[in-house]
Amino acid sequence: MTGPDGLFGEDPEVAKLAEEFERHGLALYERVCAYMDEAEIGEAFVAALLLDAAIKMRMAAYGMGVENPSVAGLKLDLDRLRREVDDVVRQTKKGAEDYIRLVKQARAEAELEDKRE
């Protein structure tokens, strides 16, 4: 997952925004994980649900946020959203090696813990 620096750059002017983004992101992640446990649903399914929700939220933000919403304007805003998502995915791919290393380490530790029990 890309951190706030990947989205906001390293400009000191946006440090507060980056911290707020990180704080809200962590809180949302924790709530989603709790819901996943409660509903007994998997990560891939939740990712699809969150993507759908993100698109709907962006559409609502456009519809309520502009003076005169239009089909063409919505389509342009959805194109902007796609570019933003592409940017996040591109940034996240740069950290793929580190992420996989951490996942393998966590899985190995969990396996050792299971063997101890």
What does this structure look like?
- The structure is a single chain.
- By secondary structure, the chain is mostly helical.
- It has one domain.
- 84% of the residues lie in helices and 0% in strands.
- The longest helix has 25 residues, at 15-39.
- It is extended and about 65 Å long.
- The two termini are 32 Å apart.
Q: Helices and strands: which structural class?
A: mainly alpha
Order of SSEs: HHHHH
**Average of per-residue pLDDT values:** 92
Largest sheet entry:
none
Characterize the overall form.
Answer: extended
Low-pLDDT parts are: 1-5
In whole angstroms, the N-to-C terminal distance is 32 Å
- Count of domain modules: 1
Global Rg: 18 Å
| Total of DSSP H or I helical runs spanning 4+ residues | 5
Instruction: Quote the beta fraction.
Output: under 5%
What percent of the residues sit in helical stretches (DSSP H or I)?
Answer: over 70%
